[in-house]
Amino acid sequence: MPLDLSVPASLVTALLPDLIVMGGAMALLLWGVWRPEGASGRPVGVGAIGVCLAALAAIAGMAVQGITAGPGPIAIDNFRWATDAVILVGTILSIALADDYGRRAEPVAVESHALTLLAASGMMLLAGARDLILVFLGIEVMSVAVYVLAGINRRSARSAEAALKYFLLGAFSTAFLLYGVALVYGATGATNLTAIGSALAASPPGPGSMAVIGLALMLVGFAFKVAAAPFHMWTPDVYDGAPTPFTAFMAAAVKAAAFASFARVFMEGFGPVFVRWHSVLWWLAALTMVLGNLIALSQRNLKRMLAYSSIAHAGYLLVALVTNTTEGAAAMVFYLFAYTLATVGAFAVVMALAEGAERPQDVREWSGLFSVRPLLAIAMAVFMLALLGFPLAGGMGFFAKWYLLQAALKAPAPQTRLAVLLVITSVISAGYYLYVIMVMFMRPRPADAAPFPDTPAWTRSVIVGAAVLLLALGLYPSPIVRWARSSSLQPTTATGVPSTPEALRITAR
Amino acid sequence: MVRAYFPLLLLFGFVALNAGLILAIGALTVRSRPTPVKSQPYESGIAPLGDARERFSVKFYMVAMLFIIFDIETVFMIPWGVAFRQLSCAVALTPAGCPAGQVSFFGLSEMLVFIGILLVGFAYVWKKGALQWD
Amino acid sequence: MMLALLQAAAEASPAAHPLAGTVAEYVWMLPLLPLLGFVINGLLSIVPAYHAGPEDVSHDPEAGHTDMAHEEAYEAEATTFHRRWNALSSVVGPLVVGIAFVLAAAIFLAMRAAGPSLETAGAFVRTYGSWMPAGELRINWGLQLDQLSMLMTLIITGVGTLIHLFSIGYMRTDPGYSRYFAYLNLFVCFMLVLVLGGSYPVLFVGWEGVGLCSYLLIGFWFSDESNANAGKKAFIVNRVGDFGFLVAMFLLWANLGTLDYAGVDAAATRLVANGALVTAICLFLFLGCAGKSAQLPLYIWLPDAMAGPTPVSALIHAATMVTAGVYLIARSGALFALAPFASLLVALTGALTALFAATIGLKQWDIKKVLAYSTVSQLGYMFVAAGVGAYSAAVFHLATHAFFKALLFLGAGSVIYALHEAYHHTHREEDAQDMRNMGGLRRHMPVTWALMWAATLAIAGVPVFSGFFSKDQILGAVYGAARHSAIGELRLLGIPGSAILYGIYVLGLVTALITAIYMTRMMLYTFHGANRTGEGERPHLHEAPWIMTGPLAVLGVLTVFGGWLNLPAVLHALGPEALLDRWLAPVVARASATLAGGEVAHLSHATEYALIGAAVAVSVLGIGFAVVRYRGPLLAKREAEAAETGLGAAVRQAYYVDRGIGRYLVEPTIALSRKVLWRGLDVGLIDGVIVNGSAALMRGVAWAGARIQTGNVGNYAWIVAVGALVVIGAVAFR
User: Residue C166: which of C33, C58, C315, C373 has the closest Cα?
Assistant: First the structure.
């Protein structure tokens, strides 16, 4: 049943999940502020998770009904639903962590839940946006909320520093994005991706043209949001300084939303000029994979290590983008799901083992963790192996990398060298992922080591849930794979038919 | 097309020239004899009370920020007002206005939603005590 | 669930096989029964380990007595803790194999009852599920029952049961009693998978499985490093052979597209007879066989394998596992029939191995080493038979050899057991396996003495004993092939195949002579003359308990009367002729006929009598020579003989093969790996340059990355701006 998006009521239907989250965020904000002083924040957390579940239900309902839409400002396809699901899962996990964080360590205001939901609504808008104005709107709603979340721990100077840095650089990069949007609009006279795609296909822009410069500027903006080198500089500082639940949120959901929009804008809107952005993105992917993994090797601070790991994963995901194929987009969504579970899980373990006030945690403090906290150690091992892409014990992490490689190799312009680089850098990443496992399992626990705090219930649920999901979907990945495969993001091509490999190999590196 | 912007370039050039000229005249003609009084910041002829780099209460910033936010939101209403007639019509406007039976409440409801969101923010700010000076 | 599968399989088979619906449907239980035993005994070996004392205390009846006090203290402890569990193992271990034997016998009777219809129906194949469905490659868990696998199953379970029973007595006081039975059960399971498997990959599962069990059992007393090394040696040498087997399977799959026997037999006709491909496949298969069945040059592991408990040597390294190679060649008859050249090489290798190992047997002092070289030698005979296409003769010798060699090993075990007990009483450290410590045991162990003499006469080829008939059939087959066969028409290095076959026949006769000599020598040194065990020990020498002599007696009967399985035509007066030949004919007759060049040559009765006469003469001559050579006074000599020189010393040292391999193969390899691959390549290049170098490089990059990561927003913004300029430049102005 295709929706006519020019009818306001249909537009509301198309945006239903996003509206649920937005409305929920506002309601929670008011509820949070009208609560009696000193009351427990947990009901707000429960409410926030309930809002996410409601949105998930709406998504499931719409996906099951098979609602589709024409080329309006909002896409209604499985790619959007899959991305929304990843975002919402990441959001739920982060909210659960934030709730424990607020109760245990720092007085994080209940507003954080509302802000998280607001950010999530922006992300969901981003995932479905088929109009550059909506893309910008989504990015801003998401980013502004996340800026605040990064600095929500007002007593921590590091948190404030992280927020300020993120805000300044984020604003800087948004300017690039906005300028790019303006130039693309100027060149094609459209902000709708479908219209841009057909305009670019009709008259391919030459080098130095306004459309291409606009494209490059937008690429910079997106590259900043997904933390691709060399626009990654903010990531370690911000991830390290921000309260851990929101670091997990940033690493998982923000990245997923940014990548989804990146893919949609570039495949649907700029698909016809693939030859223009292909090689630059190729280099960005290569640089990101190499730099992220290499610098992560030398990190001993766990959160910084995970930050660089997330940069490296952005590199892997860029490989999927470089393919410019439906399979690449599907592999990306699948990868994002695995990555979200593993990353949030890893940050949850970091949070569980942090004492009271957050301070930088050294990996070596985890010596012999297995002997005192076997469950956490095993779960962390699963997350590390999943991020590494290890078969079986790494759960679906292995399949995620596997599909990514498959997509890269089967593309019309096979990304063989990138695939090789991906494998090599994955091997390098074993250097820091396995180091964590080695420290946890093989180093003895020093006798004078400070005891770890107890793990709060929700955090434990998040850790166990993420690990179990990872392992279960690693054993039986076919439903998720089928779903991801059906998330058909169709790249627009110059001729309207799938591009021939010969035409692309000329520039394929 | 670029030629159409030539007057603009001319303007930029004139401004730059003018500024440079004035500064140059001053530098060339004025003899510099600084005294402590002369070095004081100019505050409309009133003697300065203290250091200009004073710390302001965060309340000022708070009010300023809230003002800016709501101010910009209000500014958003101006384009809405310009487009209101079209937004209230389900089909394209004719010179005679909206055809009968095609009037819609879309434009109005959009603004109501917008203001509703603003109100939520306002209520939050109010309840949070951000509008109270003391 | 198994039953449901069975029914599905039964329904799937298009034409009703004569065995369908009979007891043969339970063929899947054959390997599962010993597996069950393995599980139970394995659990028994783990569970008490948590309660009892140290498990790794060696109680090796074949080792010295290093720590007597400890050992006795341990024995008391072991009695308390292990007795109960041991009793369960004693029941479970032999019982599962015994039930498997009964089942096998029932299936055998069903096959007999099926009668002639079975000969045309082909093999009885049951598939129990898909194993490796990869693309076009479809490998199923399938078992195949035919005359050949039935015979092997009977031997394995029958002899296996006897040896399990013998082990109850032999391993009685060993702390690893349950573990021993677990391994032994597992071995039987894998061996049955090997012979019952319906395709080469399934056979390979069994093949590797028995290799594993062999390794585990050779190194059973692993606390002694030399035992563990012997296990490793067996494993590594077998890998060389397995490589050949794997290559053969790859070639089969690549060229025939199938790996199950029925498919290969059917598709083999597509191969060019005597072509390079089929010859290569057969030679690679034979490389696998040479490893598993200890043929030149891969025989070196078998003598060392004697480090395991003696019943293991009897079961694995004499009766069953080492004959797997012979089984494989008989099974692949359809392939070898197309490759006469490969067959000739098999026969030649067999003959040379037979002679080579027999000569080494002449000079060994260790009673088990004598038997080990004798096994290698007898396996050579089997390969001679398999090489000339006399597959049923090969399998016949395999069967009789299983009887008499198992008897010999168990008898040797009984002797070793007696000596060990005696030395144990007097707390003396002497080698219980050295024949120089034996002598005159006939008076102390008359039952063992008599039964071992029966086995010796059988292996020496004295008429009426089983070995006589099988060896005679092999020699007759070689002679017949030399007269007329497809192999005889080949030329190897310019020599006509028939000439080579005559040579092989002569080698066989010479080997028979030497066999008679060294076996008699062994018997004389062990049982005759004066006793050299020691004055103090002599009163403690006594016959083994009934649980050990009982199996010996059963094997003795089989050793004596095993020949009746396959009486030659000329001796039809003794009973029904060629039972085994006729039984195996549906499986091997076609391949045998092809290799023989149309039809197996029938020798005239006169020729046959002449051949029998020659064989008998040779064996009697050998025994007579040995009796004269190793007469009384020599046997009495206690101390080692004067150092030998020349050929004698060479033979005593097994032709220095081990030492040679050590010096020219192992040491250079180790030196290469240590000096070049390890120090040079690994430490120098890989660790030094690649690993540490790349690590240093990465540290450098990471250091640089960390320097860029100043924490200063201005710097970051600057980098973003520069990056943006580069990106814009790359995208827009290229």
Answer: C315
Whether residue B73 sits in one domain with residue B33: no
Query: Residue A237 and residue C699: Cβ atoms within 8 Å?
Result: no
H or E segment to which residue C419 belongs = helix C391-426
**Dihedral angle over CA of C676, C677, C683, C687, nearest 10:** 140
**pLDDT bucket at C160, cuts 50 / 70 / 90:** very high
**pLDDT tens track for A377-412:** 999 999 999 999 888 777 888 888 988 998 898 888
Tell me what pLDDT residue A65 has.
84
**What is the reported pLDDT for A179?**
94
Using a 10 angstrom Cβ sphere, with 0-12 exposed, 13-18 middle and 19 or more buried, the burial of residue C83 is: exposed
Average pLDDT over all residues of chain A: 87
Distances (CA, A) of A325 to A267, A318, A328, A405, C264: 8, 12, 5, 13, 45
- Structural domain boundaries enclosing B102: 58-128
C1 close contact with A: CB closer than 8 A: no
The pLDDT tens digits for A454-476 are 888 899 999 999 999 999 888 77
**Amino acid type, C336:** F
In chain B, how many domains are there? 2
Spatial CA neighbour of A456 closest among A93, A2, A101, A19: A101
Query: What residues make up the domain containing A437?
Result: 2-505
Do B123 and B70 lie in one domain? The reply is yes
Q: Per the structure, how many domains does chain A have?
A: 1
| Residue-wise pLDDT tens digits, B87-132 | 888 888 888 888 888 888 888 888 999 999 989 988 988 888 888 8
What does residue C197 show for φ and ψ, rounded to 5 degrees?
A: -55, 140
B125: nearest CA partner in chain A: A33
Distance CA(C524)–CA(C627), nearest Å, equals: 8
Same domain? For B81 and B24 the reply is no
Digit-coded pLDDT (tens) for C488-523:
787 777 788 888 889 999 999 999 999 999 999 888
**Distance (Å) of CA A10 to CA A2, A7, C100, C248, C705:** 10, 5, 74, 67, 50
Kindly report, residue by residue over C521-576, the tens digit of the pLDDT: 888 888 888 787 777 777 888 888 888 888 889 999 999 888 888 888 777 777 78
B72 and B120 in a single domain? The answer is: yes
Instruction: Please tell me the distance in Å from A273's CA to the nearest CA on chain C.
Output: 10
CA B56 from centroid of its chain's CA atoms: 22
| DSSP characters over C358-381 | HHHHTT--BHHHHHHHHHHHHHHH
Residue C79 has pLDDT above 70, yes or no: no
Assess A133–B contact: CB distance below 8 Å, yes or no.
Answer: no
Lowest-pLDDT choice from A121-135, C179-193, C653-667: C653-667
Cβ distance A34 to B127 less than 8 Å, yes or no, reads: yes
Assess if residue B13 is contained within a domain: yes
Closest CB to A280 among C703, C717, C731: C731
B124 within some domain = yes
Measure the CA–CA gap between C228 and C216, rounded to whole angstroms.
Answer: 9
Q: Which value does ipTM take for this structure?
A: 0.86
Closest Cα partner for C69 from C540, C427, C416, C421? C427
Helices assigned H by DSSP within B1-134: 6-29, 36-39, 58-87, 106-128
CA-nearest residue of chain A to B129?
A33
Place of tokens 């502020």: A33
B64 in the same domain as B124: yes
Same domain, B27 and B84: no
Tally of CB atoms within 10 A around A496: 10
* Range list of H helices, A324-456: 326-353, 369-372, 374-388, 396-410, 416-442
